[in-house]
Amino acid sequence: MRNETARTAIFALAAAGLVGGAAYLQPITYSPEIFSDQGEVFFPEFRDVMAVKAIEVVGYDEAEATARPLKVEFRKGRWVLTSHSDYPAEAKDRLAKTASALLDLKREIVVSDRMEDQGRYGVIDPLDTRSASLTGRGKRVTLRDAQGAMLAELILGDAMKEKPGYRYVRTPGAKRTYAVKTDAEASARFEDWVESDLLKVSAGDVEKITVNSYTLDEMQGRLLNMQRTVMVRDKENWNAQAKSIAAALSSLRVVGARPKPPSLAQQLRSKQLSMTLENVMSLRQRGYIITPDGRLLAKYGELLVETSKGLVYQLRFGEVVGETSASGKPSENRFLFVTVGTKTPETETLASALHNKFADWYYVISAADFARIRPGGTPQMPSAQQAPVAPPATAPSTPLAPPAGPPR
Length: 408
Description:
- This protein has 2 domains: 32-192, no CATH class; 203-373.
- It is built from 7 helices and 18 strands.
- It has helices at residues 2-25, 92-101, 240-250, 262-270, 277-285, 348-359, 367-373, and strands spanning 54-61, 66-75, 78-81, 87-88, 109-112, 139-144, 150-159, 166-170, 177-181, 206-217, 222-232, 256-259, 288-290, 296-298, 302-307, 311-320, 334-342, 361-365.
- The protein has a 9-stranded antiparallel β-sheet with strand order 4-3-2-1-6-7-8-9-5, with helices on one face.
- It starts with a helix and ends in a 35-residue tail after the last helix.
């Protein structure tokens, strides 16, 4: 009797195990509610791309655990990066593509209704401070009209590997994740929204490169370790280094910009600098010195570039950008001061346009680009004092704009 009871218990447990196993193997089922909006347009009230007057993209830097916002607005007849001191937004194709990508966008495929899945699809809101996850965050894109009203807002997630052309998306504040067909490639990087060709020069156009390397002793008002290297195309001194610099100039990209004081920008346009306190402090903070006779010197040397089209560029290399990342690592980006002139009437219009543009900004370039176009590395600087610098007797010829005259 006792054995019969034991066998019965074993069979009962086995049957329960089979039922439990069957339940475990059943696929997750969703209620019909999850598909209630499938096929609908995300933003039915958004009907006109021309109504978009502001675009904000928030990316996420996983290494720094920091959200990176970028905002572009239409102001006074032009698009500017309001998140970056109103720098001109010159990438018009990106503007149109970002706005058009959300027009008539449909909720094509419902993927998940679970918050736990958002990291898997890369649609965690980059602005979500409640989530501790450093990965799985998407890009938050917001479109607004001239009055600031929201036209569309979406979190763009990962591309769908098994379905080319599709990517995962989610509206902020909602749990549901979708897969949609879209070519949206929103970027929160400054360099993706501005003119990619800063100098408008090709490697083949560069005919002459003059490298002025020196150490600026601010305390004594002298130049030390002055070295000048001249490289001319089709001459013996047009070596591998010259070719490397020319190639680097043609692909030079800016990764940021800081506005110059309006008075300094105006003086640069008129090519007459004066030693006002505002000018001296603005320049000195970024690694530049203005002498009493109006010469502009750079702590880390200069590059004079002459082209076959008659344009003459002067690139002056300043301090590293005084920024520290969230991890405490100092920035290696560097300030670049650019002026341009011309030696031929044919390029006067282009030279003037470039000169006026350059006058407004201290550009920021990457450490990698600095190393490519600034031969010899970064010298160690003597300790500096915050005092005006007398004009060095041995200063190289560093006019604000290259002199006119026939090409050499």
